[in-house]
Design brief:
Blueprint: H1 5-22, H2 32-40, H3 45-54, H4 60-72, H5 76-101, H6 106-115, H7 117-122, H8 129-143, H9 147-160, H10 164-178, H11 183-211, H12 224-234, H13 239-248, E1 251-253, E2 256-258, H14 260-280, H15 288-291, H16 295-307, H17 311-327, H18 339-348, E3 355-359, H19 364-372, E4 379-382, H20 385-390, H21 395-405, E5 411-416, H22 422-429, E6 433-441, E7 447-454, E8 463-465, E9 469-478, E10 482-491, E11 500-506, E12 512-518, E13 533-540, E14 547-558, E15 566-569, E16 571-572, E17 582-589
Parallel strand pairs: 3-4, 3-5
Antiparallel strand pairs: 1-2, 5-7, 6-7, 8-9, 8-16, 9-10, 10-13, 11-12, 11-14, 14-15, 14-17
Protein backbone atom coordinates (compact mmCIF):
# COMPACT_ATOMS: atom_id res chain seq x y z
CA UNK A 1 0.00 0.00 0.00
CA UNK A 2 1.36 3.40 -0.92
CA UNK A 3 1.84 5.72 2.02
CA UNK A 4 -0.75 8.23 0.92
CA UNK A 5 -2.70 10.39 3.32
CA UNK A 6 -5.53 7.82 3.55
CA UNK A 7 -2.85 5.18 4.15
CA UNK A 8 -1.45 7.09 7.11
CA UNK A 9 -4.97 7.58 8.42
CA UNK A 10 -5.58 3.84 8.17
CA UNK A 11 -2.48 3.06 10.23
CA UNK A 12 -3.52 5.57 12.89
CA UNK A 13 -7.07 4.20 12.99
CA UNK A 14 -5.87 0.61 13.20
CA UNK A 15 -3.65 1.56 16.12
CA UNK A 16 -6.55 3.26 17.91
CA UNK A 17 -8.90 0.32 17.26
CA UNK A 18 -6.26 -2.08 18.57
CA UNK A 19 -5.81 0.04 21.70
CA UNK A 20 -9.57 0.18 22.24
CA UNK A 21 -9.86 -3.60 21.99
CA UNK A 22 -6.71 -4.76 23.76
CA UNK A 23 -6.40 -2.44 26.77
CA UNK A 24 -9.33 -4.08 28.59
CA UNK A 25 -9.31 -7.36 26.69
CA UNK A 26 -9.31 -9.62 29.76
CA UNK A 27 -11.10 -7.29 32.17
CA UNK A 28 -14.54 -8.90 31.74
CA UNK A 29 -15.16 -12.44 32.90
CA UNK A 30 -16.26 -15.17 30.53
CA UNK A 31 -19.96 -15.42 29.77
CA UNK A 32 -22.10 -18.39 28.70
CA UNK A 33 -21.16 -18.61 25.02
CA UNK A 34 -17.48 -17.93 25.66
CA UNK A 35 -17.43 -20.68 28.25
CA UNK A 36 -18.83 -23.05 25.64
CA UNK A 37 -16.18 -21.97 23.12
CA UNK A 38 -13.44 -22.74 25.64
CA UNK A 39 -14.95 -26.09 26.65
CA UNK A 40 -15.51 -27.17 23.04
CA UNK A 41 -11.85 -26.59 22.14
CA UNK A 42 -10.23 -28.04 25.25
CA UNK A 43 -9.67 -31.66 24.16
CA UNK A 44 -9.28 -32.68 20.52
CA UNK A 45 -10.36 -31.76 17.00
CA UNK A 46 -12.76 -34.68 17.03
CA UNK A 47 -14.39 -33.34 20.19
CA UNK A 48 -14.64 -29.93 18.51
CA UNK A 49 -16.50 -31.55 15.62
CA UNK A 50 -18.90 -33.58 17.75
CA UNK A 51 -19.66 -30.72 20.14
CA UNK A 52 -20.24 -28.31 17.24
CA UNK A 53 -22.61 -30.84 15.68
CA UNK A 54 -24.57 -30.92 18.94
CA UNK A 55 -24.68 -27.11 19.02
CA UNK A 56 -26.15 -24.65 16.50
CA UNK A 57 -23.02 -23.46 14.66
CA UNK A 58 -20.55 -24.82 12.09
CA UNK A 59 -17.09 -25.72 13.41
CA UNK A 60 -14.49 -23.67 11.48
CA UNK A 61 -13.94 -20.97 14.11
CA UNK A 62 -13.59 -23.62 16.80
CA UNK A 63 -11.04 -25.53 14.73
CA UNK A 64 -8.98 -22.35 14.46
CA UNK A 65 -9.42 -21.59 18.17
CA UNK A 66 -8.27 -25.10 19.05
CA UNK A 67 -5.04 -24.65 17.08
CA UNK A 68 -4.61 -21.13 18.44
CA UNK A 69 -4.77 -22.42 22.03
CA UNK A 70 -2.07 -24.96 21.33
CA UNK A 71 0.17 -22.17 20.04
CA UNK A 72 -0.42 -19.31 22.49
CA UNK A 73 -2.01 -20.82 25.60
CA UNK A 74 -5.47 -20.56 27.10
CA UNK A 75 -5.45 -17.37 29.16
CA UNK A 76 -8.48 -15.17 28.56
CA UNK A 77 -6.24 -12.50 27.01
CA UNK A 78 -4.66 -15.01 24.61
CA UNK A 79 -8.00 -16.51 23.58
CA UNK A 80 -9.65 -13.13 22.98
CA UNK A 81 -6.58 -11.79 21.20
CA UNK A 82 -7.47 -13.99 18.22
CA UNK A 83 -10.75 -12.12 17.95
CA UNK A 84 -9.06 -8.72 18.27
CA UNK A 85 -6.68 -9.55 15.42
CA UNK A 86 -9.65 -10.59 13.30
CA UNK A 87 -11.33 -7.22 13.89
CA UNK A 88 -8.16 -5.40 12.77
CA UNK A 89 -7.94 -7.49 9.59
CA UNK A 90 -11.59 -6.71 8.90
CA UNK A 91 -10.93 -2.99 9.32
CA UNK A 92 -8.01 -3.11 6.89
CA UNK A 93 -10.10 -4.97 4.31
CA UNK A 94 -12.97 -2.52 4.76
CA UNK A 95 -10.55 0.28 3.92
CA UNK A 96 -9.46 -1.45 0.73
CA UNK A 97 -13.00 -2.29 -0.36
CA UNK A 98 -14.44 1.15 0.38
CA UNK A 99 -11.56 2.96 -1.36
CA UNK A 100 -12.18 0.96 -4.53
CA UNK A 101 -15.80 2.05 -4.56
CA UNK A 102 -15.00 5.71 -3.84
CA UNK A 103 -11.61 7.24 -3.22
CA UNK A 104 -11.34 8.96 0.15
CA UNK A 105 -14.10 6.90 1.78
CA UNK A 106 -11.95 4.12 3.20
CA UNK A 107 -10.76 5.83 6.36
CA UNK A 108 -14.32 7.00 7.07
CA UNK A 109 -15.60 3.40 6.79
CA UNK A 110 -12.84 2.18 9.13
CA UNK A 111 -13.66 4.97 11.58
CA UNK A 112 -17.35 4.03 11.61
CA UNK A 113 -16.53 0.33 11.99
CA UNK A 114 -13.94 0.87 14.71
CA UNK A 115 -16.24 3.07 16.80
CA UNK A 116 -19.20 0.72 16.49
CA UNK A 117 -20.18 -0.49 19.96
CA UNK A 118 -21.23 -3.94 18.74
CA UNK A 119 -17.81 -4.37 17.12
CA UNK A 120 -16.20 -3.55 20.48
CA UNK A 121 -18.43 -6.03 22.32
CA UNK A 122 -17.95 -8.87 19.84
CA UNK A 123 -14.28 -8.00 19.35
CA UNK A 124 -13.59 -8.81 23.01
CA UNK A 125 -15.26 -12.22 23.05
CA UNK A 126 -14.15 -15.75 22.30
CA UNK A 127 -16.77 -16.18 19.60
CA UNK A 128 -16.96 -16.50 15.82
CA UNK A 129 -18.79 -13.30 14.85
CA UNK A 130 -15.74 -11.15 13.96
CA UNK A 131 -14.45 -14.01 11.81
CA UNK A 132 -17.86 -14.05 10.09
CA UNK A 133 -17.56 -10.29 9.43
CA UNK A 134 -14.04 -10.66 8.01
CA UNK A 135 -14.99 -13.48 5.66
CA UNK A 136 -18.18 -11.69 4.58
CA UNK A 137 -16.21 -8.60 3.50
CA UNK A 138 -13.52 -10.76 1.90
CA UNK A 139 -16.14 -12.74 -0.04
CA UNK A 140 -17.86 -9.58 -1.30
CA UNK A 141 -14.52 -8.09 -2.35
CA UNK A 142 -13.20 -11.30 -3.97
CA UNK A 143 -16.42 -11.65 -5.99
CA UNK A 144 -15.21 -8.84 -8.28
CA UNK A 145 -11.49 -9.55 -8.13
CA UNK A 146 -10.48 -13.18 -7.79
CA UNK A 147 -12.64 -16.17 -8.65
CA UNK A 148 -10.67 -18.76 -6.68
CA UNK A 149 -10.37 -16.55 -3.62
CA UNK A 150 -14.11 -15.96 -3.87
CA UNK A 151 -14.77 -19.72 -3.79
CA UNK A 152 -12.40 -20.25 -0.87
CA UNK A 153 -13.63 -17.33 1.25
CA UNK A 154 -17.29 -18.13 0.48
CA UNK A 155 -16.84 -21.71 1.65
CA UNK A 156 -14.97 -20.60 4.78
CA UNK A 157 -17.75 -18.11 5.47
CA UNK A 158 -20.38 -20.86 5.43
CA UNK A 159 -18.21 -23.06 7.65
CA UNK A 160 -17.95 -20.12 10.09
CA UNK A 161 -21.61 -19.11 10.30
CA UNK A 162 -24.75 -20.11 8.44
CA UNK A 163 -25.73 -16.47 7.96
CA UNK A 164 -22.93 -16.29 5.41
CA UNK A 165 -25.41 -17.98 3.09
CA UNK A 166 -27.38 -14.72 2.87
CA UNK A 167 -24.24 -12.92 1.66
CA UNK A 168 -23.78 -15.56 -1.05
CA UNK A 169 -27.44 -15.28 -2.00
CA UNK A 170 -27.05 -11.51 -2.38
CA UNK A 171 -24.07 -12.07 -4.69
CA UNK A 172 -26.15 -14.42 -6.82
CA UNK A 173 -29.03 -11.91 -7.03
CA UNK A 174 -26.66 -9.06 -7.86
CA UNK A 175 -25.16 -11.10 -10.69
CA UNK A 176 -28.60 -12.04 -11.99
CA UNK A 177 -29.86 -8.45 -11.94
CA UNK A 178 -26.85 -6.26 -12.68
CA UNK A 179 -24.02 -8.41 -14.01
CA UNK A 180 -25.43 -11.14 -16.22
CA UNK A 181 -22.24 -11.42 -18.25
CA UNK A 182 -20.70 -13.19 -15.24
CA UNK A 183 -23.80 -15.25 -14.54
CA UNK A 184 -22.35 -18.61 -15.58
CA UNK A 185 -19.01 -18.34 -13.79
CA UNK A 186 -20.62 -16.89 -10.67
CA UNK A 187 -23.15 -19.68 -10.37
CA UNK A 188 -20.48 -22.29 -11.01
CA UNK A 189 -18.45 -20.72 -8.20
CA UNK A 190 -21.50 -20.73 -5.93
CA UNK A 191 -22.08 -24.38 -6.81
CA UNK A 192 -18.51 -25.23 -5.83
CA UNK A 193 -18.97 -23.37 -2.55
CA UNK A 194 -22.11 -25.42 -1.91
CA UNK A 195 -20.24 -28.63 -2.71
CA UNK A 196 -17.46 -27.69 -0.28
CA UNK A 197 -20.08 -27.16 2.42
CA UNK A 198 -21.94 -30.37 1.61
CA UNK A 199 -20.12 -32.53 4.22
CA UNK A 200 -21.62 -30.36 6.96
CA UNK A 201 -25.06 -29.99 5.36
CA UNK A 202 -26.35 -33.21 6.90
CA UNK A 203 -25.22 -31.95 10.30
CA UNK A 204 -27.21 -28.76 9.72
CA UNK A 205 -30.32 -30.88 9.12
CA UNK A 206 -29.64 -32.80 12.32
CA UNK A 207 -29.20 -29.57 14.29
CA UNK A 208 -32.47 -28.17 13.01
CA UNK A 209 -34.51 -31.36 13.36
CA UNK A 210 -33.00 -32.74 16.58
CA UNK A 211 -31.11 -30.11 18.59
CA UNK A 212 -33.34 -27.08 17.96
CA UNK A 213 -36.56 -28.28 16.27
CA UNK A 214 -38.44 -25.14 17.33
CA UNK A 215 -35.61 -22.66 16.79
CA UNK A 216 -33.15 -20.93 19.09
CA UNK A 217 -34.33 -20.55 22.66
CA UNK A 218 -32.80 -17.07 22.92
CA UNK A 219 -34.13 -15.81 19.56
CA UNK A 220 -35.99 -12.51 19.45
CA UNK A 221 -39.62 -12.48 18.34
CA UNK A 222 -40.83 -10.37 15.45
CA UNK A 223 -42.17 -7.21 17.03
CA UNK A 224 -41.78 -3.46 16.92
CA UNK A 225 -39.64 -3.56 20.06
CA UNK A 226 -37.36 -6.17 18.48
CA UNK A 227 -36.88 -4.02 15.38
CA UNK A 228 -35.90 -1.08 17.58
CA UNK A 229 -33.34 -3.31 19.34
CA UNK A 230 -31.93 -4.45 16.02
CA UNK A 231 -31.74 -0.87 14.73
CA UNK A 232 -29.64 0.55 17.56
CA UNK A 233 -27.57 -2.61 18.01
CA UNK A 234 -26.64 -2.85 14.31
CA UNK A 235 -26.66 0.81 13.25
CA UNK A 236 -26.32 2.89 16.38
CA UNK A 237 -28.14 6.05 17.41
CA UNK A 238 -29.72 8.06 15.86
CA UNK A 239 -30.91 5.07 13.88
CA UNK A 240 -32.81 7.09 11.27
CA UNK A 241 -29.73 9.13 10.34
CA UNK A 242 -27.61 6.05 9.78
CA UNK A 243 -30.39 4.38 7.80
CA UNK A 244 -30.72 7.45 5.53
CA UNK A 245 -26.95 7.59 5.04
CA UNK A 246 -26.93 3.88 4.12
CA UNK A 247 -29.59 4.51 1.47
CA UNK A 248 -27.70 7.48 0.06
CA UNK A 249 -24.56 5.34 0.06
CA UNK A 250 -26.14 3.37 -2.78
CA UNK A 251 -26.20 6.46 -5.01
CA UNK A 252 -23.50 8.38 -6.86
CA UNK A 253 -24.45 12.06 -6.75
CA UNK A 254 -22.63 13.31 -9.86
CA UNK A 255 -24.66 12.50 -11.87
CA UNK A 256 -27.32 10.91 -9.64
CA UNK A 257 -27.40 7.18 -10.41
CA UNK A 258 -27.29 3.80 -8.72
CA UNK A 259 -23.75 2.80 -7.83
CA UNK A 260 -23.57 -0.83 -8.98
CA UNK A 261 -20.71 -1.64 -6.64
CA UNK A 262 -22.66 -0.29 -3.69
CA UNK A 263 -25.78 -2.10 -4.90
CA UNK A 264 -24.17 -5.41 -3.97
CA UNK A 265 -23.73 -4.15 -0.40
CA UNK A 266 -27.34 -3.02 -0.28
CA UNK A 267 -28.53 -6.43 -1.47
CA UNK A 268 -26.35 -8.10 1.18
CA UNK A 269 -28.08 -6.11 3.93
CA UNK A 270 -31.56 -6.53 2.45
CA UNK A 271 -31.24 -10.30 1.98
CA UNK A 272 -29.68 -10.90 5.40
CA UNK A 273 -32.09 -8.83 7.47
CA UNK A 274 -35.20 -9.39 5.36
CA UNK A 275 -34.90 -13.15 5.08
CA UNK A 276 -33.94 -13.52 8.75
CA UNK A 277 -37.11 -11.67 9.80
CA UNK A 278 -39.17 -13.74 7.34
CA UNK A 279 -37.75 -17.06 8.53
CA UNK A 280 -38.22 -15.98 12.14
CA UNK A 281 -41.97 -15.88 11.60
CA UNK A 282 -41.91 -19.67 11.17
CA UNK A 283 -38.71 -20.80 12.90
CA UNK A 284 -37.12 -18.65 15.60
CA UNK A 285 -33.59 -17.60 14.61
CA UNK A 286 -33.58 -13.80 15.00
CA UNK A 287 -30.44 -12.60 16.78
CA UNK A 288 -28.52 -9.36 16.40
CA UNK A 289 -25.28 -11.30 16.87
CA UNK A 290 -25.94 -13.34 13.75
CA UNK A 291 -27.02 -10.19 11.94
CA UNK A 292 -23.73 -8.51 12.89
CA UNK A 293 -22.48 -9.86 9.54
CA UNK A 294 -23.95 -6.69 8.00
CA UNK A 295 -22.11 -4.25 10.32
CA UNK A 296 -18.98 -3.83 8.12
CA UNK A 297 -21.20 -3.67 5.02
CA UNK A 298 -23.29 -0.91 6.60
CA UNK A 299 -20.11 0.97 7.58
CA UNK A 300 -18.93 0.97 3.96
CA UNK A 301 -22.30 2.21 2.68
CA UNK A 302 -22.45 5.01 5.26
CA UNK A 303 -18.90 6.00 4.36
CA UNK A 304 -19.90 6.22 0.66
CA UNK A 305 -22.60 8.72 1.57
CA UNK A 306 -20.40 10.81 3.89
CA UNK A 307 -17.51 10.95 1.41
CA UNK A 308 -19.69 12.57 -1.24
CA UNK A 309 -20.50 15.62 0.89
CA UNK A 310 -18.53 18.82 0.44
CA UNK A 311 -15.64 19.35 2.83
CA UNK A 312 -17.41 21.46 5.52
CA UNK A 313 -20.45 19.13 5.71
CA UNK A 314 -18.26 16.03 5.55
CA UNK A 315 -16.09 17.28 8.41
CA UNK A 316 -19.15 18.04 10.52
CA UNK A 317 -20.55 14.57 9.90
CA UNK A 318 -17.25 12.91 10.77
CA UNK A 319 -17.00 14.91 14.01
CA UNK A 320 -20.56 13.85 14.86
CA UNK A 321 -19.75 10.20 14.16
CA UNK A 322 -16.70 10.37 16.42
CA UNK A 323 -18.59 12.02 19.27
CA UNK A 324 -21.48 9.61 18.87
CA UNK A 325 -19.16 6.61 18.86
CA UNK A 326 -17.18 7.75 21.90
CA UNK A 327 -19.91 9.07 24.18
CA UNK A 328 -23.07 7.11 23.29
CA UNK A 329 -23.30 3.41 24.08
CA UNK A 330 -25.56 1.47 21.72
CA UNK A 331 -24.62 -2.18 22.22
CA UNK A 332 -24.48 -3.61 25.73
CA UNK A 333 -22.22 -6.56 26.59
CA UNK A 334 -23.93 -9.78 27.71
CA UNK A 335 -24.57 -10.64 31.33
CA UNK A 336 -21.45 -12.02 32.97
CA UNK A 337 -21.59 -13.87 36.27
CA UNK A 338 -18.82 -13.49 38.88
CA UNK A 339 -17.32 -16.90 38.19
CA UNK A 340 -13.72 -15.84 38.66
CA UNK A 341 -14.36 -14.58 42.19
CA UNK A 342 -16.42 -17.71 42.91
CA UNK A 343 -13.59 -19.98 41.76
CA UNK A 344 -11.03 -17.92 43.70
CA UNK A 345 -13.08 -18.06 46.89
CA UNK A 346 -13.83 -21.78 46.73
CA UNK A 347 -10.22 -22.64 45.84
CA UNK A 348 -8.89 -20.57 48.74
CA UNK A 349 -11.41 -21.94 51.24
CA UNK A 350 -11.22 -25.66 50.59
CA UNK A 351 -9.29 -28.30 52.44
CA UNK A 352 -7.33 -31.23 51.08
CA UNK A 353 -9.24 -33.76 49.01
CA UNK A 354 -12.43 -31.73 48.81
CA UNK A 355 -14.79 -31.18 45.89
CA UNK A 356 -17.03 -28.52 44.41
CA UNK A 357 -20.36 -29.35 42.76
CA UNK A 358 -21.74 -26.96 40.15
CA UNK A 359 -25.53 -26.98 40.17
CA UNK A 360 -26.64 -24.69 37.37
CA UNK A 361 -27.97 -25.01 33.85
CA UNK A 362 -26.52 -21.58 33.18
CA UNK A 363 -22.88 -20.92 32.41
CA UNK A 364 -21.33 -24.10 33.77
CA UNK A 365 -18.46 -24.14 31.26
CA UNK A 366 -17.27 -20.65 32.17
CA UNK A 367 -17.04 -21.54 35.86
CA UNK A 368 -15.19 -24.78 35.08
CA UNK A 369 -12.63 -22.74 33.10
CA UNK A 370 -11.81 -20.61 36.14
CA UNK A 371 -11.44 -23.65 38.35
CA UNK A 372 -9.11 -25.16 35.76
CA UNK A 373 -6.86 -22.10 36.11
CA UNK A 374 -6.27 -22.95 39.78
CA UNK A 375 -3.63 -25.61 40.23
CA UNK A 376 -4.93 -26.23 43.77
CA UNK A 377 -8.65 -26.10 43.03
CA UNK A 378 -10.84 -28.80 44.55
CA UNK A 379 -12.12 -31.54 42.29
CA UNK A 380 -14.94 -30.16 40.11
CA UNK A 381 -18.15 -32.14 39.73
CA UNK A 382 -20.76 -30.87 37.30
CA UNK A 383 -24.18 -31.85 38.56
CA UNK A 384 -25.25 -32.88 35.06
CA UNK A 385 -28.76 -31.63 35.51
CA UNK A 386 -29.61 -32.90 32.03
CA UNK A 387 -29.01 -36.33 33.55
CA UNK A 388 -31.72 -35.45 36.07
CA UNK A 389 -34.07 -34.68 33.18
CA UNK A 390 -33.20 -38.07 31.69
CA UNK A 391 -33.92 -39.75 35.02
CA UNK A 392 -36.91 -37.58 35.89
CA UNK A 393 -38.97 -40.74 36.41
CA UNK A 394 -36.01 -42.48 38.08
CA UNK A 395 -34.86 -40.09 40.82
CA UNK A 396 -33.14 -42.88 42.72
CA UNK A 397 -30.74 -43.47 39.83
CA UNK A 398 -29.84 -39.78 39.67
CA UNK A 399 -29.37 -39.68 43.41
CA UNK A 400 -27.05 -42.66 43.20
CA UNK A 401 -25.03 -40.89 40.49
CA UNK A 402 -24.53 -37.91 42.82
CA UNK A 403 -23.65 -40.06 45.80
CA UNK A 404 -21.11 -42.01 43.75
CA UNK A 405 -19.57 -38.71 42.61
CA UNK A 406 -18.95 -37.50 46.18
CA UNK A 407 -18.24 -40.82 47.82
CA UNK A 408 -14.52 -40.17 48.43
CA UNK A 409 -14.96 -36.67 49.89
CA UNK A 410 -15.83 -35.50 53.40
CA UNK A 411 -16.42 -31.85 52.53
CA UNK A 412 -17.57 -29.98 49.46
CA UNK A 413 -18.89 -26.68 48.14
CA UNK A 414 -22.14 -26.52 46.21
CA UNK A 415 -22.37 -23.63 43.71
CA UNK A 416 -26.00 -22.86 42.98
CA UNK A 417 -27.50 -20.36 40.55
CA UNK A 418 -31.17 -20.51 39.72
CA UNK A 419 -34.16 -22.10 41.32
CA UNK A 420 -32.99 -25.72 41.28
CA UNK A 421 -32.40 -27.45 44.62
CA UNK A 422 -31.82 -31.00 43.46
CA UNK A 423 -28.29 -31.67 44.64
CA UNK A 424 -28.71 -30.25 48.15
CA UNK A 425 -31.88 -32.29 48.63
CA UNK A 426 -30.19 -35.54 47.56
CA UNK A 427 -27.12 -34.99 49.75
CA UNK A 428 -29.03 -33.90 52.83
CA UNK A 429 -31.31 -36.92 52.49
CA UNK A 430 -28.18 -39.05 52.63
CA UNK A 431 -26.59 -37.56 55.74
CA UNK A 432 -24.66 -34.54 54.50
CA UNK A 433 -24.92 -31.39 56.62
CA UNK A 434 -25.13 -27.78 55.41
CA UNK A 435 -22.45 -26.19 57.60
CA UNK A 436 -22.21 -22.70 56.07
CA UNK A 437 -23.15 -20.49 53.16
CA UNK A 438 -22.23 -17.28 51.42
CA UNK A 439 -23.36 -15.47 48.29
CA UNK A 440 -21.95 -13.57 45.33
CA UNK A 441 -23.93 -10.72 43.76
CA UNK A 442 -24.64 -10.70 40.02
CA UNK A 443 -25.81 -8.15 37.46
CA UNK A 444 -29.02 -10.15 37.06
CA UNK A 445 -30.25 -9.30 40.55
CA UNK A 446 -30.26 -12.97 41.61
CA UNK A 447 -27.27 -14.19 43.59
CA UNK A 448 -24.87 -17.06 43.19
CA UNK A 449 -25.15 -19.15 46.35
CA UNK A 450 -22.22 -21.09 47.80
CA UNK A 451 -23.34 -23.79 50.20
CA UNK A 452 -20.83 -25.67 52.32
CA UNK A 453 -21.68 -29.31 53.00
CA UNK A 454 -19.80 -31.72 55.28
CA UNK A 455 -20.30 -35.24 56.44
CA UNK A 456 -21.01 -35.41 60.19
CA UNK A 457 -17.68 -36.14 61.93
CA UNK A 458 -17.23 -39.51 63.56
CA UNK A 459 -14.18 -38.52 65.61
CA UNK A 460 -14.03 -36.89 69.00
CA UNK A 461 -13.21 -33.13 69.08
CA UNK A 462 -9.56 -32.24 68.48
CA UNK A 463 -9.78 -29.67 71.23
CA UNK A 464 -12.16 -27.38 73.06
CA UNK A 465 -11.91 -23.61 73.38
CA UNK A 466 -13.14 -22.26 76.72
CA UNK A 467 -15.28 -25.33 77.38
CA UNK A 468 -17.68 -23.97 74.79
CA UNK A 469 -16.41 -24.40 71.25
CA UNK A 470 -15.55 -27.89 70.09
CA UNK A 471 -13.14 -28.03 67.16
CA UNK A 472 -13.61 -31.30 65.25
CA UNK A 473 -11.51 -30.75 62.15
CA UNK A 474 -8.69 -28.35 61.27
CA UNK A 475 -7.17 -28.75 57.81
CA UNK A 476 -4.23 -26.86 56.32
CA UNK A 477 -3.49 -26.74 52.60
CA UNK A 478 -0.48 -24.90 51.19
CA UNK A 479 -1.43 -23.23 47.89
CA UNK A 480 0.68 -21.35 45.39
CA UNK A 481 0.01 -17.96 46.94
CA UNK A 482 -0.96 -18.71 50.51
CA UNK A 483 -2.33 -21.09 53.09
CA UNK A 484 -5.92 -22.31 53.15
CA UNK A 485 -7.21 -23.31 56.60
CA UNK A 486 -10.60 -24.94 57.15
CA UNK A 487 -12.37 -25.72 60.41
CA UNK A 488 -15.44 -27.61 61.54
CA UNK A 489 -16.91 -26.36 64.84
CA UNK A 490 -19.74 -27.34 67.13
CA UNK A 491 -20.91 -25.41 70.25
CA UNK A 492 -21.42 -27.04 73.64
CA UNK A 493 -24.33 -24.69 74.38
CA UNK A 494 -26.17 -21.91 72.58
CA UNK A 495 -23.79 -18.95 72.27
CA UNK A 496 -24.58 -15.36 73.11
CA UNK A 497 -21.20 -13.82 72.29
CA UNK A 498 -19.93 -12.74 68.89
CA UNK A 499 -16.74 -14.78 68.88
CA UNK A 500 -13.86 -13.84 66.60
CA UNK A 501 -11.64 -16.55 65.17
CA UNK A 502 -8.03 -15.57 64.59
CA UNK A 503 -5.83 -17.61 62.23
CA UNK A 504 -2.16 -16.68 61.97
CA UNK A 505 1.36 -17.72 61.02
CA UNK A 506 4.31 -17.72 63.41
CA UNK A 507 7.90 -17.79 62.21
CA UNK A 508 10.57 -20.12 63.63
CA UNK A 509 11.22 -17.63 66.46
CA UNK A 510 7.54 -17.56 67.44
CA UNK A 511 6.93 -14.07 65.99
CA UNK A 512 3.56 -13.24 64.44
CA UNK A 513 4.01 -12.62 60.68
CA UNK A 514 0.55 -13.02 59.13
CA UNK A 515 -2.83 -12.78 60.84
CA UNK A 516 -6.50 -12.69 59.90
CA UNK A 517 -9.18 -12.02 62.53
CA UNK A 518 -12.82 -12.17 61.45
CA UNK A 519 -16.16 -13.55 62.53
CA UNK A 520 -16.95 -17.10 61.33
CA UNK A 521 -18.83 -17.69 58.10
CA UNK A 522 -21.98 -18.17 60.19
CA UNK A 523 -22.01 -15.72 63.17
CA UNK A 524 -21.64 -17.59 66.44
CA UNK A 525 -24.81 -16.04 67.89
CA UNK A 526 -26.69 -18.21 65.37
CA UNK A 527 -24.92 -21.45 66.29
CA UNK A 528 -27.16 -24.14 67.72
CA UNK A 529 -26.23 -26.90 70.15
CA UNK A 530 -25.34 -30.15 68.42
CA UNK A 531 -24.98 -28.54 64.97
CA UNK A 532 -21.76 -28.25 62.98
CA UNK A 533 -20.37 -25.08 61.40
CA UNK A 534 -17.72 -24.62 58.74
CA UNK A 535 -15.25 -21.75 58.76
CA UNK A 536 -12.09 -21.02 56.79
CA UNK A 537 -9.30 -18.49 56.30
CA UNK A 538 -6.86 -17.81 53.50
CA UNK A 539 -3.50 -16.38 54.58
CA UNK A 540 -1.33 -14.92 51.83
CA UNK A 541 2.41 -15.48 52.20
CA UNK A 542 3.48 -13.58 49.08
CA UNK A 543 5.61 -11.20 51.21
CA UNK A 544 7.15 -13.85 53.46
CA UNK A 545 10.75 -15.06 53.11
CA UNK A 546 11.27 -18.82 52.65
CA UNK A 547 11.21 -20.82 55.85
CA UNK A 548 9.16 -22.94 58.21
CA UNK A 549 6.07 -21.38 59.78
CA UNK A 550 3.50 -22.56 62.29
CA UNK A 551 -0.24 -22.21 61.62
CA UNK A 552 -2.20 -21.30 64.74
CA UNK A 553 -5.78 -20.48 65.72
CA UNK A 554 -7.33 -18.77 68.72
CA UNK A 555 -10.82 -17.62 69.69
CA UNK A 556 -11.79 -14.48 71.59
CA UNK A 557 -14.61 -11.97 72.10
CA UNK A 558 -14.70 -8.30 73.05
CA UNK A 559 -15.99 -7.42 76.50
CA UNK A 560 -16.80 -3.77 75.80
CA UNK A 561 -18.74 -1.88 73.10
CA UNK A 562 -15.59 0.06 72.09
CA UNK A 563 -13.79 -3.16 71.12
CA UNK A 564 -10.83 -2.34 73.35
CA UNK A 565 -10.81 -5.24 75.77
CA UNK A 566 -11.00 -8.87 74.78
CA UNK A 567 -11.41 -12.22 76.47
CA UNK A 568 -9.48 -15.14 74.97
CA UNK A 569 -10.92 -18.65 75.23
CA UNK A 570 -8.20 -21.01 76.46
CA UNK A 571 -7.43 -24.25 74.67
CA UNK A 572 -8.36 -27.36 76.62
CA UNK A 573 -6.60 -29.65 77.24
CA UNK A 574 -3.28 -27.84 77.02
CA UNK A 575 0.21 -28.87 78.11
CA UNK A 576 2.00 -25.70 76.94
CA UNK A 577 2.73 -22.54 78.91
CA UNK A 578 0.64 -20.47 76.52
CA UNK A 579 -2.82 -22.00 76.10
CA UNK A 580 -4.33 -19.01 74.32
CA UNK A 581 -4.04 -20.64 70.91
CA UNK A 582 -3.78 -24.01 69.19
CA UNK A 583 -0.83 -24.91 67.00
CA UNK A 584 -2.32 -26.72 64.03
CA UNK A 585 0.54 -27.55 61.69
CA UNK A 586 4.01 -26.49 60.57
CA UNK A 587 4.34 -25.53 56.89
CA UNK A 588 7.24 -24.70 54.64
CA UNK A 589 7.21 -21.61 52.44
CA UNK A 590 9.53 -22.01 49.45
Amino acid sequence: MKKTRPGYLLLILLFLIAARLIINLDMNSLWVDEGWSVAATSKSLWDVTTLSAEDVHPPLYFYILYKWRLAVGDSIFALRYLTAITVLLTAALIFRYSEEIMSGSGWIAVLIFGLHDLVLVLGQEIRQYPQMMLLAVLTLWAYRHHRYLFVLSGALLLWTHYWGGFILLAIGLCTLILNRRQLKQTFIALGVIGALFLPWALVVYQQISTEIPEGLGHALVNSEETYRILAYQLLGQPELLFLVLMIFGLISYQPPRLNKRSALLGLAIFCTVGLTVLINAFYQVLSFRALSVIVPVAAILIAQAVAQFRSPERSALVIFLVLQGVFITNAQPPIRLPWQSVADYVSQHSGNQEAVIIETWFDTHALVYYFDQHSDAPHVITAELDRYDHYRDKPDEYGQYLLDSVDEYDGLWLVRFGETDIVQHVLRENGWLVTGSTTQATDLGATVELLRLDRPPTNEPMTVFGEQLHLYNADVQVLDSGVSTTFLWSPEDALEQAYTISVFLLDSAGRLVVQQDTYPLTPTQNWQTGQFYFDSRFLSFSSLPPGVYTVGVKVYYFTDPAFQNLQILPVEPCSRDNCEFLEIEAIEVK
